[in-house]
Write a structure and sequence with these properties.
InterPro entries: P-loop_NTPase. This protein has 581 residues and is of the alpha/beta class. The protein is 40% helix and 16% strand. The protein has helices at 8-11, 13-33, 35-57, 60-79, 83-98, 113-126, 176-190, 282-293, 326-353, 359-362, 372-382, 392-401, 419-424, 436-443, 487-496, 520-524, 538-560, and strands at residues 150-156, 159-166, 195-201, 206-212, 230-235, 245-249, 252-256, 258-262, 272-276, 298-303, 319-323, 365-370, 403-410, 427-431, 459-464, 470-473. The strands form 4 sheets. The protein has an 8-stranded mixed beta sheet with strand order 11-10-12-13-9-14-15-16, sandwiched between helices. A 4-stranded antiparallel beta sheet has the order 1-2-4-3, with helices on one face.
Length: 581
């Protein structure tokens, strides 16, 4: 039996297609005609959504005043001439603005051709280091692609700034030599001249390395927002610390991440050791610490180099002594040891009797020593006792007595540092261009970044106790009597000195001589105690005065004598043999 053809109404495909085209055309036309209405409706919906979100975020105690204010505004609009019409027009205009199409053209996804070539080149360079011959499915292979190993990446101006990569589990990431080879390769392939930080995730076999921007060098000495007992050593990367402080640099104020060293009785690192080559900014660091310490405490400065870098502090309020000679430095450090013992006795008596500690004991005392090894060499040549041994009591018991010690010296003189100085200074700073092994020898841990290509003055690394190694840039704190320093920096330093009434009037001639011994007013409150711990301190005050007078006489005799010449066998080891134990 032959099949009958279907009716034309059911089998006419062209007619159905024409119907769909007509309907689509009508819908497009209606959309074009009603586009303003659709836009306004979309905007009103967004306005209602925004109002609902604002109402949900508003606290309950503020909702009634908000409703009252809205009702008052509505009454004012209704009472105005043409107010309702203008209000409706404004509402529709704002709805049309909020309902507009805000589609942003999609950015091109994926790396460019040049970036793809750099990633593939870096992948192939890692193959000898992150592959094994017996791996059946190697993650890194000569015929592989970088997409199977590199998770994320970032480029800036055609240079790789961040890369997150995976490596096989059999890679010996627990060995320092294996990590160093990979880091050296990535440093070379990603581009030299920049600092890179490497973060190894040994648990998940991931490595992330980031190109770090250079630390700013435009921050000068100023009053930093810190608590009593806190000292800003310098500034570091924003993601390395958990706080920022406002700083003024270049005529503007911004937030900067500081490296804060905490002293006092609750500090775990009450003493500091800073090392560096000449011209790297160690003296500027000590000047910065002195200016910050004078805000809440007293300062004793011993300048072993004798270059007069701290003469601007002599005679200022809170500065008990500024000594640069062997005899004066020894007398000052001996007084500091007796003062620490006096404070310990006062703290012990106050705790036993249940009374508060006296105000002069609670006031912090800072002992700042620059180049103590130079004084050690002079003392050895003259057959005297090493002045560094006088730091034993302040270093060992300074935390309880609220005494902090900061020692600054050169790297090539570390062999002459006293063992007590090395063992009791758990806050460490190293400045200048150094090899990674030397940084690790000073700080006790390797640095997480590659060496910097350009190392300005005050640039280095810091480590507080057992914390991480941080990049550090010390604020510019030059000697205000140094004519070669920028005038703006000199004025900024002199403005921080207590008692400097006219900071802009810098001295044209040489600085005044530092007084020998301790000032009488300062020594009156910090006297020695008798051996039995009793008495009113009068005998101790007379002893200090007598020691100061004898020290001045001996200093005059020493100046009249012939200069001391160091022997050749007194030269210490070079930086290449640096070991701090």
């Amino acid at each position: 039996m032959a099949r009958r053809p279907l009716p034309s109404i059911l089998s006419s495909r062209p007619a159905l297609a024409r119907s769909r085209d007509i309907a689509r055309t009508a819908a497009d036309g209606a959309t074009d005609v009603l586009h303003p209405v659709i836009t306004i409706a979309r905007g009103m919906r967004r306005q209602v959504s925004w109002a609902g979100g604002w109402w949900g975020r508003t606290p309950k105690d503020r909702r009634a005043p908000a409703l009252l204010l809205a009702a008052a505004a509505l009454v004012v609009v209704v009472m105005m001439p043409y107010g309702p019409i203008l209000g409706a027009v404004g509402l529709m205009a704002s709805a049309a603005w909020m309902g507009r199409d805000r589609a942003v053209p999609a950015a091109p996804s994926g790396p460019s051709e040049a970036e793809t070539g750099r990633l593939q080149s870096l992948y192939e360079a890692l193959v000898p280091y992150l592959s094994a011959p017996g791996d059946p499915a190697p993650m890194y292979g000569h015929e592989g692609s970088w997409q199977q190993a590199f998770g994320s990446y970032e480029f800036q101006d055609g240079r790789l700034t961040r890369l997150h990569l995976r490596y096989p589990a059999y890679f010996t990431d627990g060995e320092a030599d294996s990590r160093a080879r990979v880091e050296q390769l990535l440093h070379a392939k990603a581009g030299r001249g920049r600092e890179y930080r490497f973060d190894w995730n040994e648990e998940e076999n991931h490595l992330t390395f980031v190109a770090l921007p250079p630390l700013p060098t435009d921050v000068v000495a100023q009053r930093f927002v810190t608590s009593p007992g806190e000292t800003v050593l310098g500034f570091t990367d924003p993601d390395s610390v958990q706080r920022t402080v406002p700083v003024t640099a270049g005529g503007e104020t911004r937030d900067a991440p500081p490296v804060v060293w905490r002293g006092g009785a609750r500090s775990t690192e009450p003493h500091l050791l800073a090392l560096g080559q000449p011209g790297t900014g160690t003296t500027s660091l000590l000047r910065s610490i002195a200016l910050q310490a004078l805000v809440h405490g007293d300062v004793v400065v011993v300048d072993g180099a004798g270059a007069g870098e701290y003469a601007f502090l002599a005679g200022r309020p809170g500065v008990l002594a500024v000594e640069d000679g062997l005899l004066g430095a020894s007398a000052t450090l001996e007084w500091a040891a007796h003062e620490t013992e006096r404070r310990l006795i006062a703290v012990n008596r106050a705790r036993q009797s249940g009374n508060p500690v006296a105000e002069d004991v609670r006031r912090p005392l800072w002992i700042l020593v620059d180049r103590p090894t130079a004084l050690t060499q002079l003392a050895a040549a003259e057959g005297r006792e090493d002045p560094q041994l006088l730091l034993d009591v302040p270093l060992r018991h300074g935390r309880t007595a609220n005494v902090s010690v900061a020692v600054v010296d050169q790297l090539d003189a570390t062999e002459t540092l006293a063992p007590v100085v090395i063992s009791q200074t758990r806050a460490r700073v190293v400045l200048g261009p150094l090899a990674p092994e030397h940084v690790a020898a000073v700080l006790g841990a390797p640095q997480r970044t590659t060496p910097a290509a350009d190392v300005p003055a005050g640039r280095g690394y810091a480590r507080l106790g057992t914390g991480p190694v941080l990049r550090l840039q010390v604020p510019a704190t030059p000697d205000p009597f140094d004519d070669d320093a920028p005038e703006t920096e000199r004025v900024a330093v002199l403005a921080l000195v207590p008692g400097a009434e006219h900071a802009a009037d810098l001295p044209a001639g040489p600085p005044p001589d530092a007084p020998e011994g301790l000032p009488g007013d300062a020594a009156a409150g910090k006297t020695d105690l008798p051996a039995d711990g009793t008495g009113d301190g009068t005998a101790g005050q007379e002893a200090v005065s007598a020691s100061a007078v004898s020290a001045a006489e001996e200093t005059a005799e020493a100046e009249a004598a012939e200069p001391v010449v160091l022997r050749k066998d007194a030269v210490v080891r070079t930086v290449a043999d640096l070991e701090l134990g």
